[in-house]
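Q: Sequence in, structure out?
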Amino acid sequence: MTKLVRSLPHPADFPAPPTDADRARWAEADVAARPERLARLRARMAASGMDAYFGIRPEHMRYLTGFSLDDGEDRVAGNSGRFIVSADQVVVLADSRYRLQAAAQAPGARIEATTYDLAAIWPSLVGSLGARRVAVESDLVSHHLWHELAAAAPDVELVEAGEWVEADRATKEPAEIDRIRSACAVADRSVAAILRRIKPGQTERELALALEWEMRTGGADALAFGIACLVGPNAALPHGKPSGREIRVGQVLLFDFGANVDGYRSDMTRTLFVGEPGPRDLEIYEIVAAAQAAALAFLEAAVRGGEPSPGGRAVDAAARQIIEAAGHGDHFGHGTGHGIGLATHELPSLSRAASDDPLPSPTVFSVEPGIYLDGETGVRIEDLVLFDRSRRDIERLTGFTRDVLVVGV
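A: Exactly. Output:
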């Protein structure tokens, strides 16, 4: 049974925000790691007979070049931030708004002026690199742009790139793990800071704003994603948005949120109880907690016993069978977890559709089973976990308690 706790966590229970020295150390680590990151990509390109790699994803751009755009800025940046990697060059596209920033953040790259008409400069770009076969991040390139580029340089073959960079990013470097750990601590402190201020009559929007303020003033550079603050029947919406619904005694209160620290993200979900837990909601909470514990125990047994690393599908099954045995299989529709880092959702996946390939190591992912009763209630518990075979260890990076917490009284 999960313990019912009436003494609430305090922000001081968790590590302090990152310092300027931390951020400088992380920046140095990225600079030092970038040549090896590029070398891995170039090895994949050579093995596939590619002369160049055309990148679109903002997280790939930062990982490989250092140039960074804020969340959502890629929608207004035009072609700025797109990049090409050849065997001996890195080219970063930047218009007049981003030229100085790109030069400062990507000092090893060639900064190429761009406009909104990528096809107009495409022949000279690929020609300057001697590229005849270009791997393209096709999942983010529109059908229209693909054909524009193909028509602009008909002698250059465009080929769909595999998940080369995604696969490399799934294995985390020490400085990446440090930033995720710091983002987890920011989130832990922030939710602890508002627990004693939760009162019946407040709205979901009011509490979401209070939590956002704590994160932004407590070490986060930004939110990892929009905060979900959901009460009672709204908690049955796995990705619901805060509304004007008021908090009432006898209902659950679900928070799903994360901090962004130096580009790296955290992601956690806690389901709290406003007043004494009702029997139904408490029972569901116990099932979800048992499902999460089963997935963590499965991972621990594999890594500490020296067994082969499991695949994401097997980890999902370990959690899902607990929920199915309790009769709630139809009430758990999403996956058990996802990788996290420069993106909130990345490889590896822990779901029914996930790969059976062994999990990479070291890697960080969420473990987040849930049960949702339409129009009635919902419970999810989510922690970030570091899976590290070299240490033969599973480390829960989310420090906030998973015990039953009563608020609003």
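The longest helix spans residues 20-47.
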